[in-house]
Amino acid sequence: MRVLGIEGTAWCASAALHDAETDSTLIESDPYEPDSGGIHPREAAEHMSEAVPEVVETVLDAAEAEYGPDAIDAVAFSRGPGLGPCLRTVGTAARSLAGALDVPLVGVNHMVAHLEIGRHESGFSNPVCLNASGANAHLLGYHDGRYRVLGETMDAGVGNAIDKFTRHVGWTHPGGPKVEAAAAEVGTDRGSGAADLLELPYVVKGMDFSFSGISSAANDAYDAGEPVEEICFSLQEHVFAMLTEVSERALSLTGADELVLGGGVGQNDRLREMLAEMCAARGAAFHAPDPRYLRDNAGMIAVLGAKMAAAGDTIAIRESRIDPNFRPDEVPVTWRDAEPS
Ligand code: ATP
Prior knowledge:
2 domains, multifunctional enzyme, 9 helices, Nucleotidyltransferase, domain 5, binds adenosine-5'-triphosphate, alpha/beta, protein serine/threonine kinase activity, ATP-binding
């Protein structure tokens, strides 16, 4: 089974070819990088309409060069969640391509793909997943044919909360890597008092959490003249401690002993370190996917698309409309029973 995946929910126009037999994946991506400010939906959609055909053509050419004219068995695409105008471009490209190649179409939930790539890479049987992405943040666990949302942000996505602060400071998008670099200048040797931890709102309510207050408080601290490196350090410590606390609670609640990380913020070393420490302390296994699979990418869409196609979970063109608010718990999980145990 070889699946061509297409991703373009917000900023990353991406196409990939996943060969399930060899478990190899080729990914071609073209990111939208705003000159200033955050992601502008109209500019992002314009980027998608230019870049999606290009990345698809590159991957299709590579696939046909390697496997010949029948290289593709199915086309998978991100149906949502994401920005409507971007999703529409991706949906149109996927439908056209599936029609032209005369292969089935697979509609993939982007958030479930963020989860499944970690399960695929790790080989874990039934992990809890922390999705720490730009526009989302939630904990998912599988039960009775669906991924259940065990906990989630009550307002902003985790990456968006960090980016809100970096926009205030005047740094270009994406802000997460810049916050990580600035925080690293302070160092993490808290025991010796090398860094002062600024007090910022820490909001965890049961399994849910909130980031809107912390972005505003970080902005206020910057306006009050606190050193930006110390704010970045404190922002990371607070936000990632919240995510680590709820991840631990989710493991405890479900009795699971495996945690996988997903989403672009998962590229952050400090977050990975905190989650790994927490898992080690409770004897749980932890897996953070390769960074190319953490940020938005079509590889995860093609990998899950191949599992869905193998389970016969394809979609008719007339039912393949995009869904900007597509929640992960709306997806019937058809592919797990078909997997070798
Ligand atoms: P979603 O997947 O929810 O639709 P998204 O489309 O914004 O979100 P992702 O690629 O998952 O995309 O995540 C992008 C986010 O990751 C941005 O907010 C960016 O600042 C953040 N990010 C990237 N690298 C790092 C890092 N090293 N540390 C912290 N955050 C990071």
